[in-house]
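**Reference record**
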Amino acid sequence: MRQPCGLAISVLAAAALSGSIVAPPAFGSPQGVRSYLVISAPGANDGIAKAVKDNGGTVHNSYAQIGVLVAHSGASDFASRMRSVGGVQKVGQTRETDVPTGAKARTPGRDSVARKYLEPDMGDAIAAPAEPVEWNMQMMQADKAWAVNPGSKSVTVGILDTGVQGTHEDLRDNFDAANSVSCLFGKPNTAPGAWEPDSFAPAAGHGTSVAGIIAAAKNGKGTVGVAPGVRIASVKVMEPTGYMYAENVVCGLIWSAEHGFKVTNHSYYVDPWTFNYPNNPDQDVVIEAVRRAVDYAHGKGTLTVAAAGNNSVNLDQEQGLFLPGDLPNAVSVTAANTRKELAYYSNYGLDTVEVTAPGGDGYAMINTTGLNNGYTTFHGTSASSPHAAGVAALLASAHPQAGPAELRKMLLAQAIDTPCPSGDSRCTGTPARNSHFGEGVTNALKAVGGGTDPEPGPETTVYADDFEKSTGWTVNSGGTDTATAGRFELADPQATSYNGLAMQPDATPSGSRALVTGAAAGASVGDNDLDGGVSTVTAAPVQLPAGGRITLSLSYFLGHLANSAGADHLRVRAVTAEGSTVVFEKKTGVADTAAAWQTATADLSALAGKPVRVVIEAADAAGGSLVEAGVDDLRITHRR
C-alpha cells in the first residue's frame, strides 16, 4: 500500500515542477452508488481509507478494530481496483442493487427478504392475554424458573432485528433506550426513536415480537418472556426496503459488544443471499466481515444466538454458510413444535446446529407482543432463537462472571435431551445430540439453578493426544489403505496454498505437530496432498467408562479444490467388537475451500462400557483432486 502512495506523490511533484497537469485516474463507467466491504488487517483502516478515495470511493464507516471498512462507490471497477491495493485482503459488494436514496430508501421492496421470509413468521393479532402459562414456556421449564430467578437488570440482550417498539406495555419496564441504536447502512444512529421499527416496512413488528419472547415483563398482563427480569435493547438492522445487509449486521454486532450486551439475538439471515459461498468474491467478503464481527463480540463478552433458518434443509450438506448462525462463535437454534418434533420448516444438521427451542407450527403458535401495544401469534426459527437467547440471559444472570464460552457450554450441557422422532429418517445421532435438536431443548430452570446444579458436572479425561509425540497410532493398520501419496503422518505441517486459499495451514492449534496428510509443502501445492484413495490411522484401544455422557472432541482442517466434486472426506470412526460407527464426517464441496482449523465434538455415550479404537480416515475419493486434511488435540471425556 505504501509504495503506490509514494509513487503517486513523486509523480505529482514532478508534474508540478514541469508545469504540466496530471489528469485524475479514469474510473469505470458509473453505475448507481453501491456499498462495499473492504477487509484488511485490524488497525490498518487509515491507509485503506486513503486508497478508497484514490480509487473512486467514499468511506461510509470504518471498524478498524476488526479491519472492516464500509465504502460507497459509483465506479463499476471499484472492487477490482481495490483488490490490487497493498494491504487489502478482500473486497466485495454487500447488495445486488444500488444504495437507495430519498424516497427509494423508504420504499418497501416488493420481493424483499423480509416480505418473503419474515412476514410469514408473523401470525394473527390476538386479544391481550392475562399471562397464561403457555406450552412453549412449559417445554423449557421457564414457568418454574421465574420463581427462582427471573433475570437480572444488569444483563442486557441486544435484539438485532427490524427494530423494537420499546413503549409497548409489556416491554417498556425492561427496555433500554439509552443503549438502543439504528445501524442502517452500516453506521450507528442514536437519534431518539431511530431504533424503532419503520411502520411501513415489511414485517415491521418482527423485532417487537422477538423482544416479547425474550423479556416481556411479568406484570399481570399480556405475555411473559423467558427472562422477564433482564434488559433488552433494540439494534435495528433492517432497512425500510426489507433487507438486513452485512454492513448493518457488522455495525450491530460491534455496537452490542462495545455496550456490554451479554447476549444478542439474530432471528434473520444476512441479506441478500440465503447462503454465502467462499468462492464468490462478494459473498466471501460478507462471510469474513460478519465472522470478524461475531468473533470480536465474543472476545468482548457477548454471546451470539441465531436462528438456524426456515428452509427445511440439512445445513451439513449445504456448501454455503447461513449467516450468522453457521459461524463457529454463534449458537444455531432449530425450532421444535408442541410434540417435540422438528418443525416442518426448520433447517437442521448434526454438525451445524447446537440446540433447539419452541418455534411453533400450525398445531400451536407462540403468543407474544406486537406493534402498538398489541399481541400476536408468531412462529419460525425466528421464534425459537429468542427462546434460547432468553435462557442464555438467565444463565448470565445466575453466573455474572461467566463469559460467552462458559455461557455456551452451560446452555448446551443443560439442554434437555430430545431423541429423534420415530419414523423420521432425516434425523441422525443420539438422544444426547442429534441433527434435529442438537444438544436438546434449552432448559430455563437449570439455567437459574433449579432442580440440579446448573454447572456442568465434573468432567474426567478418558483419553487425550496432542500429537506432539508418537503414542501408539498405526497407519494403515488393516492393510486396506489405497492412497498412493500424502498418507497420514505425525509431523509439523508446512503451508501450501492455491490462488490465495490455504490448502494446508502452517500452524497447529497447540504445539507444533499434528496428524496431517503429507506434511511437506513440496515444490507446488499438489506435490504432497492426499492422492489415490484412502489413508487411515488407528489409535490403541481405549476402554470407555460405563454409563454417563462420553464425548469425543478434536480440532481438524479440510482444504480442497472444486475438483474434489463433493466426493472426498475426513472421517472419524469408533470401532468396537460389534462393528464400526462413523462419529464425525466432513465432506468436501464443489467449490474451492480454504483449510482452517476448526473444532468438532461427537457423542460416544452409546458405546459406554466398551473398548474402542478411534480410526481417522481421509479420502481422495474423487481421484486426482487436491485435498489436504489434519487432526489435532483429540480428547475423550466422561461426565456422569
User: Anything to note?
Assistant: Confidence is low (pLDDT under 50) at residues 1-27, 451-456. The longest strand covers residues 627-639. The first helix runs from residue 2 to 18. DSSP finds twelve helices and 28 strands in the chain.
